[in-house]
Amino acid sequence: MYKITHIKPIGLVGYRGGSMKISTKGRYGLRALADLAAYSQGEPIALAMVAARQKISLNYLEQVFGQLRKAGLVRSIKGPSGGYLLAKPAKDITVKEILEVLEGPFSIVGEDIDRSGQDAMQLAIKSLVWDEIDARINEFMEKRTLEHLVNEYKSYQESQDMMYYI
Fold first, then answer.
1. How much is the pLDDT for 13?
2. What average pLDDT does the chain have?
3. Which of 113, 135, 152, 164 sits 20 to 30 Å CA-CA off 89?
4. What is the pLDDT of residues 69-96, one digit of tens each?
């Protein structure tokens, strides 16, 4: 049985209970950045506001945003009206970029296999199955941007507002 693992030995994307999962850090980071993109409108947003809207621990978000800041995805503004802003337009920040900052590069199987010891069957499966799955997942994540997430969020929010209950 092949174990779904992360390229990094301490990887956070992996095989857990029968399904692939992104860690809490990746999920919360993506939610928080989408929130920031949806609500900032060019003005800094206090991380406490994001934490409250998303029901995420402020201390945890501070750690996540430290990584996002170091990677150049957000910038912080100090002072009484400070907070966080996206470092570039939402249309230019991909889901892949965010998750790679928080989780590391994605691979469905680990790179811990010694290539010199692989036989032709292992190489064929790696090339035709595992590498192809990796490529498609990475392509999918590259096509999804924060702008897509915000637009979907707003569309969903509008449809909820239009529901009538009797």
1. 46
2. 84
3. 135
4. 999 999 999 988 899 999 999 999 999 9
CA nearest to 13, candidates 140, 137, 132 = 137
Q: Measure the CA–CA gap between 97 and 132, rounded to whole angstroms.
A: 20
- DSSP result, 68-131: HHHTTSEEEE-STT-EEEESS-GGG-BHHHHHHHHH-S--SB-S-S-GGG--HHHHHHIIIIIH
- Chain CA centroid to CA 128, Å: 26
Contact by Cβ (8 Å): 26, 124: no
- Give the highest mean pLDDT range of 6-15, 136-145, 153-162: 136-145
Look at residues 106, 112, 114 and name the one whose alpha carbon lies nearest to residue 131: 106
Identify any residues that bridge with 15 across adjacent strands, giving them in sequence order.
Answer: 20
Of the candidates 30, 5, 17, 20, the one whose C-alpha atom is nearest the C-alpha of residue 101 is 30
Residue type, 94: T
